[in-house]
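[Q] Does anyone have a clean structure-token version of this?
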Amino acid sequence: MKKIFFIALVATATLLPAFTVKTASAAVTYATAGPMAPNDAPTWIYAPAINLFSPIQGVGTNTKGEMDVPSGYTNNVGWYAGGVAPGNTGTAVLDAHVFAAFKNLNKLPLGSDIYIYMKSGRVLHYVTKASNLYSLATLSPYTLFAPTSAKQLNLITCAGKFTTRLSTYDHRLIVTAELV
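[A] Here you go.
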């Protein structure tokens, strides 16, 4: 795992945020130019309204068959790598713990900008369209991975009350955004 030694925010001609990540062995500049590469993957998420700027890691499913989530000891956001990639038609799904990276997700206003930085260097600009709270007992994968002809992003985190019986929260917050 590479340690990040320096992150600088810079402006681009289109006024979308871009940045350079320098590690001990390389520097990568993320910008808005360039076509979508096959097998492209998200690497960072930036939501300025809630000061969210976190690395994204691919996740699969846990032993219960549920979408896995990055460790709550990190500020990482998970992207379900078995599903739709951001920027493609359908619903790409990102998750994080309510006490970690998504601690302020419930404060994200409708109409807010979300930027997804891709491995290829592209920056995808989304705008939030909905924020819904679902009971864990009634939330279905169909809701989370909603089929759509739009290029959509669902951000999910825990909400509600912690239940010791289930060792989780009793609700889920899903914020939906569309690519602009």
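[Q] Thanks! Anything notable?
[A] Confidence is low (pLDDT under 50) at residues 1-36.
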